[in-house]
Amino acid sequence: MTTPITIAPAVGTWVVRAGGAVLGESSRALELREGDLPPVIYFPREDIGMAFLDATDHKTTCPHKGEASYFSIMSKSRTYQNAVWSYENPKDEVAQIKDHLAFYAQDGVDVEQV
């Protein structure tokens, strides 16, 4: 059985913050729903301050989306290791998330609708 994945425009404007700093804001974000998992907001790369992100060697593979590349967030107060992921070459079924970034919400990293 395959996990159903749906991708749709995320309603409204979304912002991501780390260590209190705004990393990006977008009204063009995508919402990815995968099975029973909580929805994930994917931000267009051009709406994120890439100067805050540092590419890492970490990779994971999802059978439905492909290989994910990771970034750490460099804030004034700390580094959030592998807190951001991107599918550089996603599978055809989820091609819309190419050139988008998703963030692990954690202590100090917030993704929210504004």
TrEMBL record:
Q: One of this protein's Pfam families, by short name?
A: NTP_transf_9
Q: What is this protein called?
A: DUF427 domain-containing protein
Q: What is the lineage of its organism?
A: Bacteria, Pseudomonadati, Pseudomonadota, Alphaproteobacteria, Rhodobacterales
Which residue ranges does the record assign to the DUF427 domain?
15-105
Question: What highest taxon heads this organism's lineage?
Answer: Bacteria
